[in-house]
Amino acid sequence: MGGEALLRSVGLAIAALALALGVGEVALRLLGVAPGSPAAASDWGRDDAILGWTNRPGVGHPSEPGHVPMTFWPDGQRASSPAPKLDARRRVVVVGCSFTQGFGVADAETFTWRLNETYPDVRFENWGVGGYSTYQSLLLLERLLRAPGPKPDLVVYGFIGDHVRRNLAKLRYVQQLKSARGLFVVPPSVGLESDALAEHPARVVAPWPSEQSVAWTRVLHGAWLWLHEHRQRNRDDVLATNLLIERMDREVREAGARLLVAILSDLPSRTDAFLAEQKIAAVNCIVPGYPGDPSFQVGGVGHPSGRLHALWSECVRRALDAQGLLR
Amino acid sequence: MRSLALGLVALLFSLALGEVALRVVGYRPRGTTTAAGGNAPDWSAGDPALAWVNRPGIGHPDEPGRVPMTFWPDGQRASAPEPKQSASRRVVLLGCSFTQGFGIADDETFAWDLNQAFPDVRFENWGVGGYGTYQALLLLERLLREPGRTPDLVVYNFIGDHTKRNVASYRWIKSLKSSTALYNVPPRVGVEDGGLATHPSQVVDAWPLERHSAWVVVLHDAWLRWRLRERDRQKEEATNLLLERLDREVREAGSRFAVVLLDDMPPEIREFLDERKVPLVDCSKPSYKTDPQKYRVGGVGHPNGARNALWAECMGRELQARGLL
Fold it and tell me: What is the ipTM of this complex?
């Protein structure tokens, strides 16, 4: 083969490859795969080097029907009474995710606000943060337990089944956490090593070169992340969650307080059995109509509505009274 | 067939010859040992999160003289004739055996000397033999969670050996012999994406035949050394991240933090502390290693009472000069 023929063959191969990539790019976009792009920052959250993110003090607006304003006090907790009940006899710290935070509902509709109305001499503090896992709730709780001042008398952890995958920062979950700082933010997470917890710090996944303009690159990056996840992680996420709840219970007891796990949605059977076996106080507040019944969701489609929060408030109240947790 | 048999015989002969050669140069099959750190000594008790803690009561170090060491019911080393409950200030001292006062009498430790020098301050000695920065941090987190008075000052007493302990380097693991497994590895840290990753305690078990063959010992050692090769490279950065976390958590608790250098600090850690404006008190001179007869227990062991007295004098003077007491 002469030099000219070789050059022609190479040119043809490059053209064929470029055409294949071009056709693939069009096909990917038709299938809905768009190039990755950084997201706009929400007005209710802010970056935190340890926790990934926290509530931003002030008024934030959820991406839910109605965009109802949510008030956060200067320390980051959700407003859960007209003013902080500083002279209350007892202090209850409530941690959890958006369900606890009351994402999408007005301050006065959250279950923590209602509990503050029910118990005038108890200060219920709503430290729920949208998107949090058990692990992030634990890290926030550790920060609160370190802070100077009186320790809480009781800690309520609002559990939902989705926390299980969040604790291990499963890829499908992480890919929802679009960030203005990169492609997406990976919250602090845990893994298992010899059936004990290993902890991994928060990080940001930066886009690959051209990922924000080429769908192919996004697909390749996604595949690489998937392979990486499968190589790295022990996938028993329920065991990891159980160990996190056990640690939360131990640390709360070390602080001289008690823990109540309030199950708000989807309880894995192994976690149910674990709570009973470890004698960790829990109350099942799952409402069978959620999700499904539009009256239990903001705008019929979103997060738990004020109606569901009212039922949770009543459920937690019954548990507090029946188990003597505020005595 | 004959060739195969001949090959096998040659291989077995070579292995046997190698085994003899290894034993001649000093390698031995693993014995079942009892050693400091993981378990067995009468001064320590197992702990699921910290791997080990001080055992309340009287313990005896494996140092010349085997001087009794007293630990109060909460696990801190006795650092005064009795706890100074009415002191107006509380100082928590963290660290390893150097802080604990391994091998010396209660009233020879620098914590005891400080309590005598500052009658209105309660210095609590939470040093534990074998601890690195990470275990000291975990212990501090536990202390800060407890109801009661927040410390006014937290002092972390550093020695260079803590860096390899923090990452559980090969050389450190090799010194943590266990009576039940091969090694008991305490909780450790690593660096991931510039952040601190933490790993729980673990046990390294002996390989099959390791208690009978020097060959297997050599192979297992080589495998461990290769597997853990990255850890030594991370030890300074990991230690910096731990010191940063100690400082942050102490400040979150409304307290103040200082690092006291007892012996050997890598320059990158000194620079990091300087950059972060974390107070560093250098009490490392003269090194206890320079004059063993003068500064070591029995001339060979841990820092002795005379060296502790110098540390106490340096710490008291410098912490007071910086307004930390």
Answer: 0.83
